[in-house]
Amino acid sequence: MIWVAEIGSAHKGSKAQAFEMIRQAKKAGATIAKFQLGWTPEIEQKWGNSPMPRRPDRKGVSVRYIDDWAEDLAKWCKDLEIEFMASIWSMEALETARSVNMKRYKIAHQMRDFELIEEMMKDGKQVFISGYEHEPETYRVGLTKIWCTKDYPSYDPDYACDRDGYNSYFGYSSHAHGYADALLAVAHHAGYVEKHVTLNKADTTLRDNAFALDFKEFAEMVSIGNEMARLR
Question: Is this model's pTM higher than 0.85 or not?
Answer without folding.
Answer: yes
